[in-house]
Amino acid sequence: MTTEAVHNLDLRGVACPMNFVKTRLYLDKMQSGETVTVVLDDGEPVESVCQSVKAEGHTVERQEQASDSSWSLTIIKA
Fold it and tell me: Taking the C-alpha atoms of 50, 52, 11 and 66 in order, what is their torsion angle to the nearest 10 degrees?
């Protein structure tokens, strides 16, 4: 049985496109198959990051909205 490392990255308040840049830099440091949960503001930030990480071949495993209108994306590195 393998244990996946889980990382957390809070990017609330970070403007586009810096939220994707920071997500990408974080993913670059991770091993393939590891997961990161990224917390983003509602609207363009969550849409942009979600589309961009998928375009790079990563998997968005979960996308959930929190009570404060932020979003939590769980991304599996390709």
Answer: -10
Going along the chain from its start, the domains and CATH numbers come out as 6-76 (3.30.110.40)
Identify the DSSP state of 17.
T
pTM (two decimals): 0.91
Task: Kindly give, in sequence order, each residue whose CB lies less than 8 Å from that of residue 37, ignoring residues fewer than 6 positions away.
Answer: 6, 7, 8, 9, 72, 73, 74, 75
pLDDT digits (tens, 9 = 90+) for 33-52: 999 999 999 999 999 999 99
- Between CA 19 and CA 12 the distance in angstroms is 9
